[in-house]
Amino acid sequence: MRQLNPNGLRSKYSSALFEKMLKKFFTEIGDDPNREGLIETPKRVEKMAEKLFGGYKQDPKSVFKTFDGENYDEMIVVKNIEFYSMCEHHMMPFFGRVHIGYIPNGKIVGVSKLPRLVEIFSRRLQNQERLTQQIADAINKFLRPRGVAVIIEAKHLCMMARGVEKQNSEVSTSAVRGLFKKNTNTRSEFLKLVRS
User: In the chain, how many domains are there?
Assistant: First the structure.
């Protein structure tokens, strides 16, 4: 996907190419791209793509406006952050919840910034494992906490609507850094808070 213009809209050339490619796709699957229900679909899909893949236009660093932690050195947990992403293998959605915990090292970040970080990385072509690591690594890099932990629980339409077609399957991934990796008690406390 080409880089979007700063105002979020594609150039006329890109829009025309996008429409041409989508019409060819409709033809290839056996439909008529000129029937009434599909005439405006390329424009709608283009707008949808701008939303679903808007994370490419955002810099994770922009989220990390930090504040003095006022000597707070206990665990901070933000759980049940909803997310939606697109699987890079089948271009089908996967969605679920992200749980983030970190232990400050002098600085804290506004709690609303962590869901924004999730949004930046989830609004790209992804796999769940990379998404989990990117969130943990960004927090580690820009906030420099004493430790960070991320858990993602997600359902994948590529497993539900095609392939094995298992409706209740859920994938869990985790990434731990710093104290969460070194100290089993810290990790256990995080898991207990997430499950409570």
Answer: 2
Q: Residue 150 sits in which domain range? A: 60-195
pTM beyond 0.70: the answer is yes
Closest by Cα among 104, 100, 109 to 65: 109
β strands within 104-188, DSSP E: 107-109, 125-126, 147-156, 171-178
pLDDT tens-place string over residues 77-95: 999 999 999 999 989 999 9
Q: 167 and 123 in one domain? A: yes
User: Residue 2: what pLDDT?
Assistant: 46
List the CATH number of the domain containing 38. Answer: 1.10.286
Question: Is 60:142 a contact under the CB 8 Å cutoff?
Answer: yes
Q: Do both 68 and 155 map to the same domain?
A: yes
Give the span between the Cα atoms of 12 and 16, in whole angstroms. Answer: 6
Q: Model confidence over 25-48: pLDDT tens digits?
A: 999 999 999 999 999 999 999 989
Going by DSSP bridges, is the β-strand pair 66-68/107-109 parallel, antiparallel, or unpaired? Answer: antiparallel
Distance CA 83, CA 95 (A): 6
The catalytic site residues sit at 87-90, 128, 156, 158
Q: Looking at the chain, how many residues does it have?
A: 196
- Residue 25 corresponds to which tokens in the numbers above? 């796709």
Count CB neighbours of 36 within 10 A.
7
Amino acid at 57: K
